[in-house]
Amino acid sequence: MSKQMSHLDNIPSTPGKFKMEKSPFVHNRLRWHSSLAKLAFWSFIFLALILIFFFRYPSSNPLPQDPSRRSLRTYNWGGPAWEKRVRSSARARSRNGISVLVTGAAGFVGTHVSAALKRRGDGVLGLDSFNDYYDPSLKRARQALLERSGVFIVEGDINDSALLKKLFEVVAFTHVMHLAAQAGVRYAMENPSSYVHSNIAGLVSLLEVCKSANPQPAIVWASSSSVYGLNTKVPFSEKDRTDQPASLYAATKKAGEEIAHTYNHIYGLSLTGLRFFTVYGPWGRPDMAYFFFTRDILKGKSIPIFEAANHGTVARDFTYIDDIVKGCLAALDTAEKSTGSGGKKKGPAQLRVYNLGNTSPVPVSDLVSILERLLKVNAKRKIMKLPRNGDVQFTHANISLAQRELGYKPSTDLQTGLKKFVRWYLSYYSGGEKAAS
Ligand SMILES: NC(=O)c1ccc[n+]([C@@H]2O[C@H](COP(=O)([O-])OP(=O)(O)OC[C@H]3O[C@@H](n4cnc5c(N)ncnc54)[C@H](O)[C@@H]3O)[C@@H](O)[C@H]2O)c1
C-alpha cells in the first residue's frame, strides 16, 4: 500500500507533461506481478489525469466555447419536411400580404398577433423556446390554437443564430414581429441572467441575422411601459426620461431601445419599438395580477393589494389585448423598408417608439372589485406595502403619438375586457384537467 502511494507521488501532476514512455515505472516493469495489473494501473492513472484535466480546464473543450450556445437547449429543426412547413406557414395568402416572423409566438401577445395576421391573409411563422417561466402547457394550448389556423411555431431560441439564419434562407421575411422576451418585473431578482439572455443577448442575435439578411426585414418589437421607471410626470410621453429603471426587466428593455438605435444607425434596419402598458385578456399570462387574482379569489385565498407610501394608490393603465394587437398590426403596416443590404447601410432608415396604452389608469383595488362582481365571489383582500422589487406606483400612457401616426385608438374598458378574460378563464380551466397552478 505504502509502495503504491510513493509511486503515485512520483507521477507528474501536469497532464501536459505526462509522457508514458519516459516514466520511471518503465524501468521497474519486472517488479509487477502480471502485465494485466500493469495495464489496469496505467489505465486508471490515465483516466484520472484526463478527468482532472477536464475539470480544471473546462474552456479547453472546443464545444462550449460560444457562450450563447452553451446555455441553449437543443431543439430539433431542419430537413425537407420541416422547411416545407416553414415555407407554407410563412406564405401570404392575400395579394398584398406580408410575411412575418413572429418571435414569442406561443406567448400571450404573440399568439394573438399571429392569429390576427393569419386571419387577414399574411404569412406567419412563429418561433418560441416554450420556456417554463410559467406553465408551458398554456403555451402548448396556444400553439395548438395557432396550428389550427395554419401557423407553424418553430421551437427554438432567438440566441440560436444558426437556426435564425436558416429561417431567413428558407423565407425572405418582409417583417419581424419580435415579442420573445423574459417578461415580469419581480422574477428578475430570482433569475437575472434569463433577462440578459433573452432581452439583450437574444435581441442582438436576432438583429445580427436581420442586418445580414437580404432583403433586410422591417422590425417591430415589444419594449415596455416599465422603461418610464421612476418618472413622475404623467401621463407618460415618449419624450419623457427613461433613464431611471426600477427593475432589471425595465433596464433590459431600455437597453433594447438603445440597441435598436445602434442597428438602425449602422445597418439601416427599420425599427419600431412599442411600449406596451399592462396587457390583459384571454390566453393571458399567469404571472400577472389580474390572472392570479382571479385564480386566488376562486380558491378563497387572500390576495395582496399593494399600497404606496402614505396610503398612496397603486394604479395601472390596463390595456386590452385586442387594442394591443391593432397597434402591433398598424406598426407593421406603417413600417418602412429597411435600407441596408448585405450588412451595409444604404441610407437612413425609420426608427420609431410608441406608447400603446389605454390612457385610463385604474387602481388595483378597483380591478379586484370588478373581478369580485364577475366571479360572484368576495375577495379576501390583504393590504400590503408596495415592496421595492421592481413595481412602480402607477402607469399612465399618453398615446397621442400612436393615435396620430398609427391610427391607434383603444376601445375596450377594463370592465368589458375583464368580462372576456373571466369567460375564457372559466372555460379554459373548467373540468379540473388544466387546473391553474
Ligand atoms: N403582457 C404585458 O403586459 C407586457 C407589457 C409590456 C411589455 N411586454 C412585452 O411584450 C412581449 C410579449 O409579452 P407576453 O406578455 O406575451 O409574454 P409571454 O411570456 O407570454 O411571451 C413571451 C414568449 O417568448 C418566449 N421566449 C422567451 N425567451 C425566448 C428566447 N430566448 N427565445 C425564444 N423564445 C423565447 C417565451 O417562451 C414566451 O412564450 C414581451 O417582449 C414583453 O416583455 C408585455
UniProtKB/TrEMBL annotation:
**Which chain regions cross the lipid bilayer?**
39-57
User: EC number(s) for this protein?
Assistant: 5.1.3.6
Q: What class of enzyme is it?
A: isomerase
SUPFAM superfamilies of this UniProt entry? NAD(P)-binding Rossmann-fold domains
Outline the extent of the NAD-dependent epimerase/dehydratase domain.
Answer: 100-337
In the record, what terms sit under GO molecular function?
Answer: UDP-glucuronate 4-epimerase activity
Its placement in the membrane is given as:
Multi-pass membrane protein
Q: Which Pfam families match?
A: Epimerase
**UniProt KW Transport keyword:** no
Coiled coil ranges: none
Localization in the cell: Golgi apparatus, Golgi stack membrane
Keywords, in A-Z order: Carbohydrate metabolism, Golgi apparatus, Isomerase, Membrane, NAD, Transmembrane, Transmembrane helix
Q: Which domain of life is it from?
A: Eukaryota
Query: By its UniProt entry, which InterPro entries does this protein fall under?
Result: Epimerase_deHydtase, NAD(P)-bd_dom_sf
Q: Which reaction does it catalyse?
A: UDP-alpha-D-glucuronate = UDP-alpha-D-galacturonate
GO annotations of cellular component type = Golgi cisterna membrane
The family line of this record is: Belongs to the NAD(P)-dependent epimerase/dehydratase family.
Question: Quaternary structure?
Answer: Homodimer.
Q: Matching PANTHER family, A to Z? A: EPIMERASE-RELATED (PTHR43574)
Name of the protein: UDP-glucuronate 4-epimerase
According to its UniProt entry, this protein's organism is: Hibiscus syriacus (Rose of Sharon)
